[in-house]
User: Fold Zinc finger CGNR domain-containing protein from Amycolatopsis oliviviridis.
Amino acid sequence: MSAGFPDFRLGTVLATSFTATLTERRGDALERIPTPQRLVDWLAVSGLAVDSCTAAQLDLARELRESIHAAATAAAIHAAPPASAVRIINERSIQGRAAAVLTPENTREWRLTSASRVEDALGVIAADAISIISGERDGKLALCASPTCQAAFFDTSQSRTRKWCDMGTCGNRQKKARFTANQRKNAG
Assistant:
């Protein structure tokens, strides 16, 4: 969780963090970028600051998010990704014109072509998705074990056996449910 934006789930992988802007996909879905301004906020905390976003750009972002989720889910279960998802991810990647730059602290930052270019930010997210879905990065795509979540996440743990997209939410919720069930069983 980030300071100032407690409802954003920010992980270490940009693409799967972006798909987490829609949570509880199998339960009562929660849209975490309901307005263009919330997308601006999410991009800012993700290192892709833009000045503004239109409703049409928000629609492009959501379409990319759902395409990444569909392709990542397919990769996690070793299935072919939907052709429409691949097309959208590729289109967003090609349309973005952001450049990676090296900072004096030896970290990478993204420079967008203009401060309001949402398409550049989406291109960076799409490129990140391509790198994890194609297997270029060290890790494994997996699906959250929570029956109401089922989020795709990128597991970089040493054993590659993580069960939860986020231990602070889904993992704790499942542990609490197990504890409560055991308490009831022991009381009866």
